[in-house]
Amino acid sequence: MIPTNEISITFPSRSANEGYARAAVSAFAAQMDPTLDELGDIKTAVSEAVTNCIVHAYPDTVGKIYIRLKSFEGNILEITIRDRGLGIPDIDKAKTPLFTTGGDDRSGMGFTIMESFMDNLKVRSKPGVGTTITMRKKISMRLGGLARDKFC
Amino acid sequence: MKIASRRDGGKLTISLTGDLDHHAAKKAIPEISKIIDFEFPTSLTLDFKNVSFMDSSGIALVIGSFKRAGTIGCSFAVENVSKQANKVFDAAGIKKVIDITEEKILTR
Fold it and tell me: What mean pLDDT, rounded, does chain A reach?
C-alpha cells in the first residue's frame, strides 16, 4: 500500500515532549477529518505509547523516540512509534491490564488503552535493541468536509 | 498542570487544570498527597472540569488519591470528567469502585 501522505518526527525522550507528540499527531490526523471522539482516541493512544518509551525504554537515559505517520486510501491512519531502548522481555505480560514495572504513578493500562482505542495494534520488541509499535485506525468518512469534496 | 484547592468545612475540593499526562502526573500525585495530609478533610472531591486531556496517568492519580483519602477515612469522588477522560476510566473499570461523574452537558 502506498501512503497518500506521510510524516516523520524524532524527539528526545523527555516527558515535556508528550504534549508535543500528541499535538503533532493530531495535526496530521486532522487532514483526515476525524470526529472529536476519534481525535481523542488517537491522542490517548499516542500518549500511552510515548509514555512507555520515556518510562520503560529509556528509564535512566534520554534516548530518541521516532514517530512515523502515514495515511492510506480509505481514510486509514497508521502510527508507528519506535525506540532504541531496553525492549520488552515478555510482550504478553506487558499487555496484561494493570501489570506494570513502573512505580505508583503508573497504572499498567497503557497497552489495554492502545488496543481498545485503535483498530489494530502490533508490538515488536527485542531486549537490548528496542521496541516498535504500529497502530492503525480507520477514520470515519463523514458527509461533509473531506468526504463531500471527494464524492459530490 | 495547575492544582488549586478550596475548603468548605470538612469538604475539600481539588481542581486540576491542563493536560493530565505522565509529565503532569509526576508532579501532581505527590502534590495532591501533600494537600490531603495537610488539610485532613472528611470528604474529598477532585474537580476535572478544566482537565483538557487525560491518559492512563490519570487512572494512577485517581487511584493514588482514593487510597490516600481511604487511609484517613475520608470519602472520595471525581466530578466533571470529560467524555475523553471518561473513556479512559471506563477502560480501566475503576468506576465500579470509585464515584466518577461525567461533566454535565449544558443544553440551551
Answer: 93
Residue A56's pLDDT is what?
Answer: 96
According to CATH, the topology of domain A5-151 is Heat Shock Protein 90 (3.30.565)
Type and span of the H or E element at A51: helix A36-52
Pick the CATH number of B2-102 from 3.30.750.24, 3.40.50.10860, 3.40.50.720, 1.10.1790.10: 3.30.750.24
Per mean pLDDT, which range of A145-149, B59-63, B92-96 is the poorest? Answer: A145-149
Domain ranges of chain B: 2-102
Contacts of B42 (CB under 8 A, 6+ apart): B10, B11, B73, B74, B75
Residue type, A87: G
A-interface mutation test, from B56, B59, B98, most A Cβ less than 10 A away? B56
Chain A residues close to B59, C-beta within 8 Å = 107, 109
What does the pLDDT average to over A45-56?
97
